[in-house]
Amino acid sequence: MKLKNIRKAKSVSIILSILAIAFLFVSCKKTDTSKDDKDLLLGFSQVGSESAWRIGNTNDIKEKADEYNIGLMLENANQKQENQIAAIRRFIAYKVDVIAFSPIVEEGWENVLTEAKEAGIPVILVDRDISSDQSDLTACKIGADFYKEGRKAGEYLIRKADDLKMEDVNIVEIAGTEDSTPMRQRRAGFKAAIANDKRMHILKSVDGDFLKSRGAECMRTLLEEYGDKIDVVYSHNDEMTLGAIPEIEKAGYTPGEDIIIISIDGGQEAIDVLKSGKINCIVECTPKLGKEVMETVIKLKNGEEVEKVIHPEEEVFSDEQDLSDIAPRGY
Ligand code: GYE
C-alpha cells in the first residue's frame, strides 16, 4: 500500500473508533438505571401479591414514585422472608438512597438492617412492623394502627349483639399470617374490646395466612368442628372472608344472617359483598401509603426530621349505615 493510502486508512479507522466509543457511551447511558433522570432511588421490598390490598399497595407505591420523580427498585418477595432479606442486600449493594419494606413477620431482621445502617441507608417500615426492641434500626413506620382496627371490629360486634339481643356469642377467628404485625395486633385489639363482655366466647382461632384459599379451608374445618354453634366469623382480611363465605353457604347457612361476618381491608369486591348483605362489617385498612412514603423518602434524603409513626385515617363500613354512597375503592 502506498504511504498516502496507509494514512487515509489510519484516519478512517481513527474516525470509526471515535464513533464506536461515542456510540457505546450514549447507549450505556441509555441502559443505565432509572436514577439518571430521577433525583433519588428507593429500593422497595414488597411482601407478595396475596391480596387485593397488597396489589393495591404495590400499584400505589409505583404511581406515587412516578409522581414524585423517585426512581424505584421494586422487588416482590412472594411471601418469603429470605427473599426480602436478599432484596434488601441488593439495595445496599446498589447504594440506593432509601430502603423501604413491608416485613412479612416481625422477627429476624437484625442482621440485614444492621448492614443497611452501617451503609448509611435509612430504612422506612411500610405497612408492617418489626419487633420493637430493634426500633433503632429503622427511621420510621408508615402504616395502619392494626390494634385500633381489631378494637373497632370488637366494638362493632358488641353493638350488633346488643341489637340482636344475643345472650351468648360464639366467635371463630380466621387470622392472618402467623407472627405478622396485622395478625398480632388485630387479634389483640379485638380481644381487648370484647374482654369485659361476658357474652363473648372465642371458640377457636386459626391461621389463614391472609389467603383466599386458606380462608375457605379454615372455614370448612371450623364448620365441621363447630357447625351451628358458630355465631360470628372474625376474619383478619377480605381475601380470607371471600374464601370463607361460599363454604358457609355450602354448609347451608346464610352469611350475614345465620352467621355474623366481620372483615378487615375494604377492597371493592368485599364492599360489594357487604352491600349484598353477606358481610356485616368491614373495618377499613387503606393500602394507599405511597404519598406518605415518597414524602418521607425526600425528607430523609435531605436529612430532615421525620415522624416516627404515621397512621392513616380509617373508617368502618357496616350494616349500621347507608352503604350506597361509598366511593369506588380503587383496590
Ligand atoms: O390486611 C392483607 C394483606 O399487612 C395490612 O396484608 C396488610 C395486610 C392486609 O395481605 O390483606
Structure overview:
The protein has two domains: 136 residues, Rossmann fold, CATH 3.40.50.2300; 140 residues, Response regulator (Rossmann fold). The strands form two sheets. A six-stranded parallel beta sheet has the order 2-1-3-4-5-11, with helices on both faces. With 331 residues, it is of the alpha/beta class. It is elongated. 45% of the residues lie in helices and 18% in strands. About 5% of the residues have low confidence. Strand 8, helix 8 and strand 9 form a beta-alpha-beta unit. The structure holds beta-D-fucofuranose. The site of beta-D-fucofuranose (GYE) has 14 residues, from helix 2 and strand 9.
Keywords:
alpha/beta; Rossmann fold; 2 domains; 6-stranded parallel beta sheet; 10 helices; 45% helix
CATH class term of the largest domain: Alpha Beta
Number of strands: 12
Order of helices and strands: HEHEHEHEEHEHEHEHEHEHEE
Integer tally of domains: 2
How much of the sequence lies in strands comes to: 15-25%
Q: Count of DSSP helices?
A: 10
Question: Strand sequence of the main sheet, in spatial order?
Answer: 2-1-3-4-5-11
Helix content: 40-55%
CATH topology (level 3) name of the largest domain: Rossmann fold
Question: Radius of gyration over alpha carbons?
Answer: 26 Å
Supply the CATH architecture of the largest domain: 3-Layer(aba) Sandwich
